[in-house]
Design a protein that fits this description.
The complex is a heterodimer.
Chain A (H helix, E strand, L loop, with lengths): L1 H16 L5 H16 L11 E2 L5 E2 L3 H19 L8 H23 L3 H10 L1 H11 L4 H31 L4 H4 L10 H17 L8 H8 L2 H22 L6 H25 L4 H22 L2 H32 L10 H4 L1 H14 L6 H16 L3 H24 L15 H19 L11
Antiparallel strand pairs in A: 1-2
Helix pairs in contact in A: 1-2, 1-4, 2-3, 3-4, 3-11, 3-14, 4-5, 4-6, 4-11, 5-7, 6-7, 7-9, 7-10, 9-11, 10-11, 10-13, 11-13, 11-14, 12-13, 12-18, 13-14, 13-17, 13-18, 14-16, 14-17, 14-19, 16-18, 16-19, 17-18
Chain B lengths: L1 H5 L21 H19 L18 E7 L3 H13 L8 E5 L8 H4 L3 E2 L6 H15 L1 H4 L17 E5 L1 H17 L3 E4 L1 H7 L10 E5 L4 E2 L2 H14 L3 E4 L1 E13 L5 E13 L6 E11 L5 H7 L17 E12 L10 E3 L5 E5 L4 E5 L17 H15 L7 E13 L6 E4 L6 E5 L5 H17 L14 H5 L10
Parallel strand pairs in B: 1-2, 1-11, 2-8, 4-13, 11-18
Antiparallel strand pairs in B: 3-7, 4-6, 5-6, 9-10, 10-11, 12-15, 12-16, 13-14, 14-15, 17-18
The chains are: A mainly alpha, B alpha/beta.
Pfam family, one (chain A): Proton_antipo_M
Subunit structure (chain A): Core subunit of respiratory chain NADH dehydrogenase (Complex I) which is composed of 45 different subunits.
Enzyme class (chain A): translocase
């Protein structure tokens, strides 16, 4: 693991000591190199985990997420170049430092061996994200958004701290590698229900679950592009990853306690998809679509079958890449027209045809078109939930329909139609933007050829 | 470094923003009340839900971002805001900000006008606009209804317009009336005997023909329309700001047309709105700017760089709207024409109408080109009435020989020096500036139709209901005038 952590920490001196004109190229290229180094984690010789040290390990569940995180840093840096153009050098370097520190915490979170270490890093990722949202966001509402984000996540995760310390005291160790072996059934009592709630709520708020999702549209809309990308692609998956790890020790309470959350998810999926149909703000639409996709992941994790875990992992990776790409596309619109309203940027296909290709591909993967990994994830989750309860297929099917509806609505409103007068002088797509989109889309398309890398620990 | 990063001081630290002006009492009693409300405001701003700047109070400033910024809050600006909100397909789709320099409207053309509406134009689009406005005004309480607010009383007096023509102008008047009837206006032609029968107080010497509008013409209260629009538009979610637009920050693209000529297309992405009586300004990031600044539209257009170029080219074509001062006089005449008098426009250009029920009349005259008064201030020249307005009126209506001027006021006419008709639609080079200005005295009566046309242009990309393409800006460069046939 040191081969990842030390280079990531050394990215700090790279930003601060680079020549001013070279900070972007230096940080982007070095972070890209780090992500290529991380590809070696995909080599999982057996179903067990790769243990790197006493503190870090990687597992078929965490390695795809880890690679996603590392892959995103160069993309985030590339995406932020335009809106930071006019800032002074000190601020640019501070922004990059925030991104790098966030990256460092995330890398360590996904490979943490021990749950308390995981918790500390989980909370530590909030700080750079909060700074990025409130300091570099666009509107005055960003302060409001930052507050919602911070307090929702903190309040959700404080009970988790208490639960983890109690578990440490009673079990003696919270090491993820050995947790499988000292499993005891939780007794059937109110205290184990409370323990279950305490452990799960943090991740529910992070995912977010439908009832606790208020922070997500605000944070996504007000954050600058890199903030939106990392929020959508990685931070939400922290919740999924954490839930998958912690539900190991929470059997059999999960069977009974998960019901209300499953209901909330199934209902929330349809609600948030329907809200997407009524959205006028592009980023808000993508944010609500994230909630909808994540609700599928929560359903999968709570059902706890091998197929659903495979679907959850695949969906997390696929959604990370797709959502981040959609935010980049929305940002490219915003940089040209200075407005996030969809109506004001119509008919872009005639003006920017290559960008329209990326829009098309992103929308198609968002609506889970076969044979993309989005479809594989959704399909596995649907099949698992059908076997859990036959009726859920109605809700899932309705959700797929509405997802297709709003993805196509977004595509048609922005790309098709007659271009307006005020889009006459759009800057053509920069090479940087095209690279950004292709670097999102190519992994997504290549994973279609070999999806078993992202199908998680229960692949048999 | 970390401390600086943690400082939540707002996105653009290089912009100078002074603290807002505070007016407070200095006596201890008042101070305590002021302090309590200030503390309450601070607490409310900290709780989630409000905009918050930790350094100073910014509640009087416009938001930092708005999709559409409408420069000018008169009847045209408010009409555009109303139709933008009415025609948007989902509620809350477009954020609109109306920037008005003077919330008392002390110099706005809207409230200083006599409020007439008529369809007796020669340009078909003008007739269609006025017809639509008349139906809008008749159904105003359906269009502008706000929950729990009293209905509007526009005091629409549908008494019609009476235009008089001499021998020379009779042919023009006949062809005009034919066009008007084709468009659906109800106008009738009257001979001098019919005139004398209907309006015995008219002296028909020199009059060969008269056209009288029988429906949808008359006058109404422009203040009421303005307040109704303001109320409705605020209820639809449009933000108002009192301030002056001082700067447009734009980005340019140098492009080549298909024939190889180079053009520079500009896009305004930021509008600097300066607060009253202070140097404080707020940069508002915007996607579309609508120029509805009335008499000052020309100045606003210059701010955007319209007209800065070699004359004769498209870059050098200015927006030819300038303020012209017009006087309106109010007099009392007990033997006057009475309650059924329409708004009469004489051959000389002098006009008058009844005002209220106390034998008062309003009237005036558009001065010829050479004698335009200085538009620097709104001072009234009573001598103009004595020399130029009274004689033709007294000749036309003998009862007016014994009138007594009660008062007078002056207002600006956003005069289009090119062809005295409005400018609507986008500018070819500044791609996101739309015009709704320059109506040369007809802005009030054409406002609902023009507002809808501009909203359609912004939201759909073309005119849908009334085709105002002859009114586009490009006619100034191409030299295509659409002028009203003036009846002499």
């Amino acid at each position: 693991m040191l081969k990842i952590i030390v280079p990531t920490i050394m990215l700090f001196p790279v930003t601060w000591y680079s020549n001013n004109s070279k900070i972007w190229i230096n940080t982007t290229s070095y972070s890209l190199l780090i992500s290529f180094m991380g590809l070696s984690f995909l080599n999982q010789p057996n179903n067990n985990s790769n243990n790197f040290s006493m503190n870090f390990f990687s597992d078929p569940l965490s390695s795809p997420l880890l690679i996603l995180t590392m892959w995103l840093l160069p993309l985030m840096i590339m995406a932020s170049q335009y809106h930071l153009k006019k800032e002074p050098w000190l601020r640019k370097k501070s922004y990059l430092s925030m991104l790098i520190s966030l990256q460092m915490f995330l890398v360590m979170t996904f490979t943490a061996n021990e749950l308390i270490l995981f918790y500390i890093l989980f909370e530590a990722t909030l700080i750079p994200t909060l700074i990025i949202i409130t300091r570099w966001g666009n509107q005055t509402e960003r302060l409001n958004a930052g507050l919602y984000f911070l307090f929702y996540t903190l309040i959700g995760s404080l009970p988790l701290l208490v639960a983890l310390i109690h578990l440490q005291n009673s079990m003696g160790s919270l090491n993820l590698l050995t947790m499988n072996f000292w499993l005891k059934e939780l007794p059937n009592s109110w205290s184990s229900n409370l323990l279950w709630m305490a452990c799960i709520m943090a991740f529910m708020v992070k995912m977010p679950l439908y009832g606790f999702h208020l922070w997500l549209p605000k944070a996504h809309v007000e954050a600058p592009i890199a903030g939106s990308m990392v929020l959508a692609a990685v931070l939400l998956k922290l919740g999924g990853y954490g839930m998958m790890r912690i539900t190991i020790i929470l059997d059999p309470t999960t069977k009974a306690m998960a019901y209300p959350f499953l209901m909330l998810c199934l209902w929330g999926m349809i609600m948030t998809s329907s809200i997407c149909l009524r959205q006028t703000d592009l980023k808000s639409l993508i944010a609500y679509s994230s909630v909808s996709h994540m609700a599928l992941v929560i359903v999968a994790i709570l059902i706890q079958t091998p197929w659903s875990f495979m679907g959850a992992t695949a969906l997390m990776i696929a959604h990370g890449l797709t959502s981040s790409m959609l935010f980049c596309l929305a940002n490219s619109n915003y940089e040209r027209i200075h407005s996030r309203t969809m109506l004001l940027a119509r008919g872009l296909q005639t003006l920017l045809p290559l960008m329209a290709t990326w829009w098309l591909l992103a929308s198609l993967t968002n609506l889970a078109l076969p044979p993309s990994i989005n479809l594989i994830g959704e399909l596995f989750v649907m099949m698992a939930s059908f076997s859990w309860s036959n009726i859920s297929i109605i809700l899932m099917g309705l959700n797929m329909l509405i997802t297709a509806l709003y993805s196509l609505y977004m595509l048609i409103t922005t790309q098709r139609g007659k271009p307006t007068f005020h889009t006459h002088n759009l800057n053509p797509s920069f090479t940087r933007e095209n690279t950004l989109m292709s670097m999102h889309m190519l992994p997504l398309l290549f994973l279609t050829l070999n999806p078993k890398t992202i199908l998680g620990p229960t692949l048999c | 470094m970390l401390r600086r990063a943690l400082r939540l001081g707002g996105g653009r630290g290089l912009v100078t923003r002074g603290p807002g002006s505070r007016g407070g009492g200095s006596t201890p009693g008042k101070d305590w009340d002021g302090k309590v409300s200030e503390i309450k405001k601070k607490i409310q701003s900290i709780l989630p839900g409000g905009a918050w700047n930790p350094l100073y109070d910014t509640s009087h400033l416009p938001p930092e971002h708005s999709d559409v910024v409408i420069v000018g809050g008169g009847v045209l600006g408010l009409s555009v805001a109303y139709w933008l909100k009415k025609l948007e397909k989902r509620r809350g789709a477009i954020r609109v900000l109306v920037v008005e320099r003077d919330h008392t409207y002390s110099q706005a053309s809207t409230v200083l006008s006599i409020g007439g509406i008529h369809q007796q134009f020669s340009v078909p689009e003008n007739i269609q606009l006025s017809l639509f406005s008349a139906s809008f005004l008749r159904n105003i309480n359906e269009y502008l209804a706000v929950v729990d607010a009293p209905p509007l009383d526009l005091q629409f007096n549908p008494l019609g317009y009476l235009l008089l023509a001499s021998e020379k102008g009779a042919a023009t008047m006949e062809s005009n009336v034919r066009v008007q009837r084709q468009e659906g206006a109800k106008v009738c032609l009257m001979s001098p005997e019919q005139l004398r029968n209907k309006f015995p107080w008219i002296n028909t010497e020199g009059v060969a023909l008269a056209s009288y509008g029988m429906e949808n013409e008359g006058w109404f209260d422009p203040w009421c329309l303005l307040q109704g629009l303001r109320r409705k538009v605020q209820s639809m979610g449009v933000l108002f700001c009192q301030g002056e637009v001082t700067r447009f920050v734009s980005s340019s693209n140098h492009m080549k047309t298909t024939s190889g000529t180079e053009v520079t297309l500009k896009r305004i992405y930021e509008v600097h709105v300066k607060m009253d009586h202070s140097l404080e300004y707020q940069p508002v990031e915007c996607a579309i700017v609508i120029n509805a600044a009335g008499a000052w539209s020309g100045q606003v257009a210059e701010l955007a760089g319209i007209g800065k170029g070699p004359p004769g080219t498209l870059q050098g074509t200015r927006l030819p709207v300038e303020p012209r001062k017009r006087y309106v006089y109010l007099w009392h005449c007990p033997q006057g024409p009475g309650l059924e008098a329409p708004l009469v426009t004489d051959i000389s250009g002098a006009y008058f109408r009844r005002e209220g029920l106390g034998n008062n009349y309003l009237g005036g005259l558009s001065p010829p080109e050479e004698e335009e008064p200085d538009p620097g201030n709104l001072e009234v020249d009573y001598g103009f009435f004595q020399d130029k307005v009274w004689p033709p009126l007294a000749q036309r209506v003998p009862a007016f020989e014994t009138l007594k001027v009660r008062s007078a006021w002056a207002g600006y006419n956003d005069y289009n020096t090119f062809d005295q008709n409005g400018v609507v639609g986008p500018h070819p080079l500044v791609v996101n500036m739309y015009f709704a200005a320059g109506f040369s005295g007809h802005g009030l009566q054409q406002a609902p139709g023009v507002g809808r046309a501009v909203a359609e242009m912004v939201l759909e990309g073309h005119f849908q209901t009334i085709d105002l393409s002859p009114f586009l800006f490009s006619r100034f460069y191409l030299g295509e005038k659409i002028q009203e046939q003036v009846i002499i």
